[in-house]
Amino acid sequence: LCVNDVLTGEPNNRDSTNWRHSQHDNEHIIEQYSRQTLENIDCADPLLEPNGPDANIRGLNKSDLEIVEARWSDPPAELACHPAEVDIVCQSIRDDGPLTQGLLDALRWARDYLPLGDRPFEATVVLDVGAHVGYFGLYAAHLGHQVIMFEPYAANRALLRWSMCRHPRLGGRVTLLPYGAGQRGACSLRSHVGNRGDGIVSCAAESASPLPGYESRGTVQLVPVEEAVGEHLRIFFLKLDVEGFELDVMRTLPGLLAKGQVAFLATEVSSNLMGGARVVAYLQLLWQAGFEVHAESFDGPVISTVAHVARLPRHVDCFCIHKSWLEAAAANTIAPNYTSQDAKTSSYVGSHANEISGQPVRSNQLRSVCAGILLMICMILVVVAKLPCTFTIWTRFHIRLRRLLRRRKALNVH
Question: CB count, 10 Å around CB of 195?
Fold first, then answer.
């Protein structure tokens, strides 16, 4: 199923049979878990949990809801959020800040990485683990992707359901799983009073009590990702933001990772939350799974050894590309954004039309021409800037030459 076809809601004729089969299998596997979609959400009261561990409980009061505008659409999409003064992510959404913008840029970059016909599999499914209030996942739905979200915190889910109901075109592409991701079990959830929506999962008994400045958000249920979505699902883009629980989550995707069925990954790596040893173990897991890991962006420096890890800041966003997509890009000489340890190009360059169509930007030749023109302009500017100096030197040389010629003429006369 191509991204173009997702926008229309219909698969193309070439892949329609396979699409229906894979969707049927995926739904059958997920069926044992509660899932929240527009089909079972009561949009008259979206703050009420329709099913799952917190069924029939209201995730938060309506007075605790604040409406913010997501400027990735025109007109801006209204989304439900925590009050900005108690949630830094919602504050960033409201102010269109960099905290949320980097992930949107990364998804657009991945969409333009290869032409449709050269991709190892279709760029259809986006998996959002740690969905928060759904800003990234709803943006992926806005671009036409089918989105599966994991979110254990009931208050976040209530806000997300409100936004799904407010924008049914986007909400219809979203499946919300009311669980955390990890090894099956019940764990405690806590978050800081100044950052309410970013919950930290604690499964160890000794770490269950809230730290200073943190409040308990109750108990949440964890389920393995692969059990919930199925080992045959092909994930185009995986966003993983679970506040230090990333290693535990990735260990629940053994089959998907072994088969190379995750193309792109955006993940936080924080030694403050994970500890140095777990950061190394996490990156080693990604390397063994065939990912090339970059710091800060898909065009950022490559992290490939433990020595590189030691030089990382205590918190870094990592962007990973699976080797199967790197190999496909290497074989495609016109791949617009081919990135590897030996060859890197500039990051996402596109237009609104490219975002809507999902077509790659083939701009290598255009970039070369533009670079040549800019170089010529710079050379001309340099020459023009030095014209007064050049004129002065030439004038002095000319005067001295004339004097020399006069002296020689005078000597010849005598």
Answer: 18
- Whether the pLDDT of residue 412 is over 60: the answer is no
Contact (Cβ atoms closer than 8 angstroms) between residue 46 and residue 38: no
Buried b (16+ CB within 10 A) or exposed e, 17-40: eebeebeeebeebbeebbbbebee
Q: pLDDT digit string (tens) for 120-145?
A: 999 999 999 999 999 999 999 999 99
User: Which of the four pLDDT bands, split at 50, 70 and 90, describes residue 381?
Assistant: confident
CA–CA dist 281, 246 (Å, integer):
11
How far apart CA 371 and CA 88 sit, in angstroms, is 40
DSSP collapsed to 3 states, the chain: CCHHHHHHCCCCCCCHHHHHHHHHHHHHHHCCCCCECCCCCCCCCCCECCCCCCCCCECCCHHHCEEEEECCCCCCEEEEECCHHHCHHHHHHHHCCHHHHHHHHHHHHHHCCCCHHHCCCCCCEEEEECCCCCHHHHHHHHCCCEEEEECCCHHHHHHHHHHHHHCHHHHCCEEEECCEECCCEEEEEEEECCEEEEEEEECCHHHCCCCCCEEEEEEEEEECHHHHHCCCCCEEEEEECCCCCHHHHHCCCHHHHHCCCEEEEEEEEEHHHHCHHHHHHHHHHHHHCCEEEEECCCCCCEECCHHHHHCCCCEEEEEEEEHHHHHHHHHCCCCCCCCCCCCCCCCCCCCHHHHHHCCCCCCHHHHHHHHHHHHHHHHHHHHHHCHHHHHHHHHHHHHHHHHHHHHHHHHHHC
Tell me how far apart the terminal alpha carbons of the chain are, to the nearest angstrom: 98
Longest dimension (CA), the chain: 119
From CA 372, how far away is CA 376, in angstroms rounded?
6
pLDDT digits (tens, 9 = 90+) for 72-89: 888 999 999 999 999 999
Cis peptide before 11 (omega within 30 of 0): no
**Please, which pLDDT band fits residue 42 given cuts at 50, 70 and 90?**
very high
**Helices 98-111 & 135-142 angle (0-180, nearest 10):** 30
- Reference 86, options 107, 103, 63, 118; nearest CA is 63
**Cβ–Cβ under 8 Å, residues 11 and 1:** yes
- Report how far residue 225's alpha carbon sits from residue 98's, in angstroms, rounded to the nearest whole number: 28
* β pairing state of 185-192 and 214-223: antiparallel
